[in-house]
Amino acid sequence: MRLLVNVDHVATLRNARGEGYPDPVEAARVCEEAGAAGIVFHLRKDRRHIREADVYRLKENVKGILDFEMAATKEMIETSIDVNPHLITLVPESREELTTEGGLSMDTVFEDFKSRVFPKIRETDIEISLFVDPNPGDIEKAAELGSDAVELHTGTYANARTEEAQKHELHRLKEAAEQAHKLGMKVNAGHGLNLNNTEALVQTVPHLHDISIGHALVSSAVFMGLENTVKAFLEIMEKYN
Ligand code: PXP
């Protein structure tokens, strides 16, 4: 199980004042030195946080895994192929949302992914991960496309307010992980994970490969420091590795 840190919100803070700091590339360096296996960023259509220049600097400076999270637009596919990260994570994206609101609707995107998106990315060695809700139908469709991995959307679990609802969501994630693993895909997970809810996830859900954590990690770093925060997440994960 590997921790990939999403540095989008270091860029959010930088962009709030139009200054050159804090620098997401410097944050990436600190995270990797603290033990993170790699870095994630989401280049959004509206460029609200990470920008092209950040992407190319991250590519130059990140030593571990680079995960390029994006919508499957023609422009983004061309940029990602040019950047050549280890992994592309395809997500749904709408301009109005505050953050990615759920997994891909695989029924909706299936034909387009099959005829346009996968053939184009398959001309490269870049691995493909599809961000999906823990639904059997979506996971089946991801496997049918020949995806290398799924990233299970943990946002519903993270937002569950009662113990019963959390248990229910953890059960769905566990079943989804087992199904994806059986179908030969790597199992990644992310969204809404923090220092309180990550442990139950990594304890309960099998076959986890990459865990992608952003907003809460950067938020905790305001109080704890980035290095200490990364180490705190790693300590939780290492108990179950
Ligand atoms: N994984 C995916 C696919 C995402 O879209 C996001 C948010 O950009 C994350 C993980 C990280 O979520 P968070 O910022 O809530 O940790």
Task: Write out key terms for the chains shown.
binds pyridoxine-5'-phosphate; TIM Barrel; 8 strands; 17% strand; globular; 50% helix; 241 residues; alpha/beta
Topology:
Blueprint: E1 2-6, H1 8-17, H2 24-33, E2 38-42, H3 52-61, E3 65-70, H4 74-83, E4 87-90, H5 106-121, E5 127-132, H6 136-144, E6 149-153, H7 155-159, H8 163-182, E7 186-190, H9 198-204, E8 208-213, H10 215-224, H11 226-238
Parallel strand pairs: 1-2, 1-8, 2-3, 3-4, 4-5, 5-6, 6-7, 7-8
Helix pairs in contact: 2-3, 6-8, 10-11
Pyridoxine-5'-phosphate (PXP) binds near residues 6, 42, 131, 212 and 215.
Could you explain the architecture of this structure?
- With 241 residues, the protein is of the alpha/beta class.
- It has a single domain (2-238), classed as Alpha-Beta Barrel (TIM Barrel).
- The protein has eleven helices and eight strands.
- α4 links the parallel β3 (65-70) and β4.
- The longest helix is centred in the C-terminal third of the chain and has 20 residues, at 163-182.
- The chain is globular.
- Bound molecules: pyridoxine-5'-phosphate.
- Pyridoxine-5'-phosphate (PXP) binds at residues 6, 8, 42, 69, 89, 91, 99-100, 131, 151, 190-193, 212-216.
Average pLDDT value? Answer: 97
| CATH top level label | Alpha Beta
What is the N-to-C order of secondary-structure elements (H for helix, E for strand)? EHHEHEHEHEHEHHEHEHH
How do the strands of the widest beta sheet line up side by side? 1-2-3-4-5-6-7-8
What's the gyration radius in Å? 17 Å
Give the biggest beta sheet: 8 strands, parallel, barrel
* Low-pLDDT sequence parts: none
Helix fraction by DSSP (H/I, runs of at least 4): 40-55%
